[in-house]
Amino acid sequence: MKIAFFDTKPYDKPSFERFGEANGVTFKFFETKLNEDTAELAHGFDGVCVFVNDTVNAAVIDRLYEMGVRVVALRCAGFNNVDMKHAFGKVHVLRVPAYSPYAVAEHTMALLLTSIRRIHKAYIRTRDYNFSLAGMTGFDLHGKTVGVIGTGRIGRVFIDICRGFGMKVLAYDKFPAPGLDNGDTIRYVTLDELFTQSDIISLHAPLTEDTYHIIDAEALEKCRRGVVLLNTSRGALVDAEALLAGIKSRKVGAACLDVYEEESDLFFEDNSGHILDDDTLARLISMPNVIVTSHQAFLTEEALSNIAETTVDNLIGFFENGQCPNEVCFRCGSAQDCKDGKCF
Ligand code: NAI
């Protein structure tokens, strides 16, 4: 089985080569992203393997279909970069639903602690032998209220971590997890209650029509003054212009962003020698209370290994057994519901 692997980074190769070789899957690694201009590279391959910023729109799907490519194996959980409706009947879309919720949840807490305890400032200061504490005052997490939007795999691990710090949790999910609400330290509330009562808000929901700009000017207006916003889910959950306005007006106390709405042309690449065209991102990065990491929350040894293993299992399941439990349904976006037809 031959798979064209797009948007290859050096850290992708070792685990994919290891699991591929052991299971008879040959990956051809291309550094370029998949899009209308590069889809041609998939000619002669059985499938393509793509990541979050590859483009799998109608034009790309049609080209893949014409070339006989029948599988798009996402090496990530989110599939908002795939036109699922157009894919139906043409290409099968496989994904890695979970690879390490701990990686993302732990990174979210790392960002929060870095921000509120000013570790990013201290690191730079002490390298210059500046041991002053001016401007370094933080606040305790213990006793604070964290609002968690999206209580799936990552959201629930993040809740556990927050509980370890003695925080109270207000949760919001379109499909609440049974048994999570204990009526005391963890409670499901409405989105408005979450906005008005949280000291910290963390986003762990997928990007859908419902969650697009779930944090916008109106939402920020409802929030507590000084609210800390954490986004390690998808950039477009946050209206970046509104966030910038919230930071400028001091309504938002701090923001930690692992993802950004317009990240696809920037993140994962070294742009240090370039003039940044995106004024909103440049202004956000210039703020002392904004921390940006470049979509690295997933990047742990464990996650990379799990991603490669599941992707190879998905491909083998699909090509050898004709089915894959991690195939995405174009209607409901889940593999599980498709099997018993619930989503139809
Ligand atoms: P999951 O599918 O286990 O959980 C997502 C939760 O969001 C579910 O409980 C679902 O019911 C809920 N949800 C769906 N629509 C909603 C809505 N309109 N409002 C509120 N909640 C809603 O997914 P998981 O594994 O926890 O991942 C969460 C997100 O994290 C992913 O969708 C992905 O975008 C992002 N992610 C980011 C990574 C990074 O490196 N920064 C790596 C992996 C995932």
List the SSEs and their pairings:
Elements: E1 2-5, H1 13-23, E2 26-29, E3 47-50, H2 58-66, E4 71-74, H3 84-87, E5 92-94, H4 101-116, H5 119-127, E6 145-149, H6 153-164, E7 168-172, E8 186-188, H7 191-197, E9 200-203, H8 217-222, E10 227-231, H9 240-248, E11 252-257, H10 279-286, E12 290-292, H11 301-321, H12 335-339
Parallel strand pairs: 1-2, 1-3, 3-4, 4-5, 6-7, 6-9, 7-8, 9-10, 10-11, 11-12
The structure holds 1,4-dihydronicotinamide adenine dinucleotide.
1,4-dihydronicotinamide adenine dinucleotide (NAI) binds at residues 77-78, 98, 101, 104, 149-155, 172-175, 204-206, 208, 210-211, 232-234, 258-259, 295, 297-298.
Describe the protein's architecture and organization:
The protein has two domains: 2-99 and 301-328, 3-Layer(aba) Sandwich (Rossmann fold), CATH 3.40.50; 101-292, NAD(P)-binding Rossmann-like Domain (Rossmann fold, 3-Layer(aba) Sandwich). The chain has twelve helices and twelve strands. It has helices spanning 13-23, 58-66, 84-87, 101-116, 119-127, 153-164, 191-197, 217-222, 240-248, 279-286, 301-321, 335-339; strands at residues 2-5, 26-29, 47-50, 71-74, 92-94, 145-149, 168-172, 186-188, 200-203, 227-231, 252-257, 290-292. Strand 10 (227-231), helix 9 and strand 11 (252-257) form a beta-alpha-beta unit. It binds 1,4-dihydronicotinamide adenine dinucleotide (NAI). 1,4-dihydronicotinamide adenine dinucleotide binds next to helix 4 and helix 6.
